[in-house]
Amino acid sequence: MDFRDRMLTCVNCGKEFVFSARDQRYYKEMGFENEPKRCRECRALFKRERQIVKDCNGNTKEFFKTVCAACGRPAYVSFKPTGSKPVYCRDCLVAEKIKQEQGGEMPDVTPDAPSAPSTEAAG
Ligand SMILES: [Zn+2]
Ligand SMILES: [Zn+2]
Question: pLDDT, tens digit, for every residue of 61-103?
């Protein structure tokens, strides 16, 4: 099958970007069913906002960068923040947990992310 460069619209910034023939082949080889939704810049940005962390079992976990609703510092959570719920960093989560335990209401998510992720090595 022949691949041709196609123009797609970035869902993030609305700009058109090229989904190159090479990329299409790569996507096909990787078994990706969805076309890329973001342009290269937004994708790079999005990538930076994520953390892939290996747990003790060797499983990789994906963390999303967001901002703590309590202290405003960067927080990493194991789910994609939707904005409908406040997200706390590790420190504030502990404080919130204590508060909620006293109040009786339990949080339904338990972010377990590194509080200070190391910077990505250049590659
Ligand atoms: Zn974009
Ligand atoms: Zn916090």
Answer: 778 888 888 899 888 887 777 778 888 888 888 888 888 788 7
Reported as a single tens digit per residue, the pLDDT across 48-64 is: 777 777 778 888 777 88
User: Which tokens is 21 given?
Assistant: 């023939």
Region of residue 104 (phi > 0: left; psi between -120 and 50: alpha; otherwise: beta):
left
What is the distance in A from the centroid of ligand 1 to the CA of 11? 7
Domain residue limits, the chain: 1-48, 49-116
Q: How far is ligand 1, taken at its centre, from the CA of residue 45, in Å? A: 9
Cα of 69 vs centre of ligand 2, distance in Å, is: 7
Q: What is the pTM of this model?
A: 0.42
